[in-house]
Amino acid sequence: MARAAVPGRLRGRLIWRVARLVERREETPTARTLLFQVPGWPGHLAGQHIDIRLTAADGYSTQRSYSLAAPPDEDRVELTVQQVPDGEVSPYLTQVLGIGDPVEIRGPVGGWFVWRPTATEPVLLVAGGSGIVPLMAMVRARQAAGSRIPFRLIYSVRTPQEIYYAAELRRGAPGLDVTYLYTRVAPEEVTRPPGRISVYDVNTHGWPAEFEPTCYVCGPTGFVETVADILVALGHDPRRIKTERFGPTGG
Amino acid sequence: MTEGYAGLGGYDGYGYDGYEDGNALAGPLREIFTVDVTAATCRCVSCGRTGEVATLRVYRHAPGLVARCPGCDAVVLRLTRAPHAAWLDLKGTTALRIPMSEDAVSV
Amino acid sequence: MGIVSPGFQGRPRRGDTRLPPGQYLTEGFPVLSAGPTPRIPTDRWEFVITTETGQEYRWSWADLMALPSETPTVDIHCVTKWSKLGTIWQGVSLDTLFTEVDSAADFALVHSYGGYTTNLPLEDLLDGQAWIAYRYEGEALAPEHGGPARLLVPHLYFWKSAKWVRGIQLLLTDEPGFWETAGYHNYGDPWREQRYQGD
User: Fold this and answer.
1) Residues C181, C186: Cα–Cα separation, whole Å
2) What residues does each domain of chain C span?
3) Is residue C40 within 8 Å of C144, Cβ to Cβ?
4) What H or E segment, with its residue span, contains residue A48?
5) Which domains does chain A have, with CATH numbers?
6) Across the A/B interface, how many CB contacts are shorter than 8 Å?
């Protein structure tokens, strides 16, 4: 059982903490979930992210941001890293970093794109590709808190092989509805032809606007823009639509 | 956020328009402030739009971070981080309303 | 220095004498932008040099195309640490554009469509050091790389080579531009690693 986050106290400025890799799991052929032990970790909320810093023997260092994939479990934090071809950081994290090896982690950060277990509104989560990561943290935080708040998750992926957390999502949870939208290749039993997310998809698998859900949308910039526009067109209050866009990087 | 997702650059033909959400400012600003400035409300000097810093459009593939108003594209905030100093320009917002509480919530 | 992560190398960082200190070589052409990409049709494009007395010298796209062009091959160095070697451009030398311009100014503030600005000494724009470039590697310059035309001043960090260039304002006193007012070096010589103010 995850410990409840303790976000209440003023924690001061961020500091870098040494984190050691405890476990690495294959999520998809190109994505790995990494579990780190971070002594002194102050806890976090679902939806927050961290910065990770790598330093080479000659002092060169570089940093990247990753969303946290799960609520805190004592001093352990979980990330899911998509390997970027020719990337500078992700191939190292997914392949080279060994169990027990250190990196530095700073966080948690971000107080807006978060779900708190004390919230009472229904929740709609809309993920594009690896945008599932912070939304999965919300799904897991709900379960960890024993919350009965109804959640709906719409998860857009290219192919079934690219689904993160597939087994866990298949097991499901009471009060959690999951819909997959395939954009390129769909399993045979799926009648919806592969394609991008549409008004119909969001209208069918989301919540009616009258239910006043909080909507969390995470994915590439264009995806998020599309979904946010659809939600507004369906009558959702823009103030209850929280988005996290991400663009490509030089890896 | 950045490389963790970068494998999806150009994800299924959605146009890449180069910006991210103001959430991307959270880490860089928490280096400077003890509160989460992305949850603060700002007011665009140029068009008067009011909204959370987290809702600004952040261009990070640049020498520094540039946050623009989603209503009018005016620059609201800029942040440059050098090894030994940070430069923060807030002249695009008239004021920041920073949520505070008895126990000074800061997440 | 942070804790070393075993086996982490990072990008290749040295070994080429054509690379200024702290730079790494890239084969791609990264797109950096501080705002939305302006799309300027060439029939609405113009370029204006304004002197310290307010006198204006204007060129339409057709005027620019009618001027003799050059095809410089240059190395470019971005302050975000990538360098690209042997890039081939086509454009009009600023010496050509400044031929008729009468000015006592020492400083230039470059303006772009979209509102970007950058400053540099006027002498750095002259004597074969700078161009208004409109073709890159034989192709029309793409909007994300500053098309239809950008300034090209390859001996300074690339933020000085303003994309979507619209005009040059000549000044008697120096006035810092967009990045120069946000911590970046006023001059920006990559070989002296002048990245930030105080470098």
Assistant:
1) 9
2) 43-184
3) no
4) none
5) 16-109 (2.40.30.10), 123-246 (3.40.50.80)
6) 187
Please name the residue of chain B whose CA is at the shortest distance from the CA of residue C178.
Answer: B78
Instruction: Say how far apart CA C189 and CA C76 lie, in whole Å.
Output: 12
- Distance of residue B73 Cα from the nearest chain A Cα, in angstroms: 16
Q: Burial, C38: exposed, middle or buried (Cβ in 10 Å; 0-12, 13-18, 19+)? A: middle
Q: Are B95 and B43 within 8 A, CB to CB?
A: yes
For residue A97, pLDDT over 80 is answered with yes
**Domain C43-184: top CATH class:** alpha beta
At residue C75, the 3 state secondary structure works out as strand
B86/C183 CB distance under 8 A: yes
Chain B residue with the nearest C-alpha to that of C78: B63
Nearest residue, CB atoms, B68 vs list C35, C37, C184: C35
CB B54 within 8 A of CB A245: no
* Structural tokens at position B7: 């494998």
Distance CA A77, CA A63 (A): 17
DSSP single-letter state for residue A86: T
**Sign for the pseudo-dihedral over CA of C181, C185, C186, C188:** negative
pTM: 0.84
Reported as a pLDDT band with limits 50, 70 and 90, residue A13 is confident
Is C5 an interface residue toward A (CB < 8 Å)? Answer: yes
Alpha carbon of B100: minimum distance to chain A alpha carbons (Å): 10
Domain boundaries, chain B: 18-97
CB contact under 8 A, C33 and B61: yes
Residue ranges of alpha helices (H) inside chain A are: 90-91, 132-144, 166-171, 199-205, 221-233
pLDDT tens digit sequence for C81-130: 999 999 999 999 999 999 999 999 999 999 999 999 999 999 999 999 99
List the single residue in C33, C79, C80 with the smallest CB-CB distance to B18: C33
A136 phi-psi bin (left φ>0, alpha ψ -120 to 50, beta other): alpha
* pLDDT mean across residues, chain C: 95
Mean pLDDT of A51-57: 93
The CA distances from residue B87 to B55, B75, C25, C190, in Å, are 21, 15, 28, 21
What does the alpha-carbon distance between residue C146 and residue B56 come to, in Å, rounded to a whole number? 24
Q: Which ipTM score applies to this complex?
A: 0.90
